Amino acid sequence: MNGIPFAHEHDVCLCHTCGYVCPAGTSTCPRCEAPVHARKPNSIARTWAFLIAGLIFYIPANLMPVMFTTLFGSSSQNTIMSGVLEFIEGGSWDIALLIFIASVVVPCLKFVVLGTLLVTVQRRSTWAMRERARLYRFIELIGYWSMLDVLVVALVAALVQFRELSTIEPRIGILFFGLVVVMTMFAAMSFDPRLIWDAEVEDV
Asked: Beta strand pairing status for 21-23 and 12-14?
C-alpha cells in the first residue's frame, strides 16, 4: 500500500484509551492500564446493535410529547415537531432552528452515515474510503452536541418558570430522545474506522 508500513509489521498496537503505542501481545496498557487489543472487539455487531436500538427509541421520541406547557390557564403537550412549529409561530426562530437541527437533522444524519459505513465495510467496498473516514470523524464530532435538544428544553423550562401563570415540564418523549443520543454515541464509539481500509489491504 504505497510503501506505508502497518502497525502489525512492527509488532505494535495502539491503546484505544490514551493512544500509547504498545508492543504486540500486550494485554494492559503500561501508561493508563486500560485493556489493549488490536481492534475494537465485535465492532460491526456492536455498532449495528446500538444503531438499531437508537432507531427504535427514535420512534417514540418523535411520537410522544417532550414537554407540557401551561400559559394563562391553557395547557398543551408538544412533540418535537409541534414544539418547533410553536416556537416558529411565537417568533423564536433561533430556538426552533436549534431544536430542529439537534432533534431531526443530527440524529437522521448519524443513522444514515453509520448505516452507510457499516454496509460498505461489510461489503469490503473500496469506494471513497478517505471520504468515509472523514464522515466518521464528522459523526464523532457532532455526537458531542447531540444533547442540545435536551438542554434547550431544560433551559426553556427554567426561563418560563419566571413568568407568572406559566409553567413548562419535560415529558416522556425527552427521555426517549436522550436514549437515542446515548445509543448513537455508543454506536459511533463502537465502530472501528480501520475496518474501512481493510478492503484496500486485501486488494494489494
From this structure: antiparallel
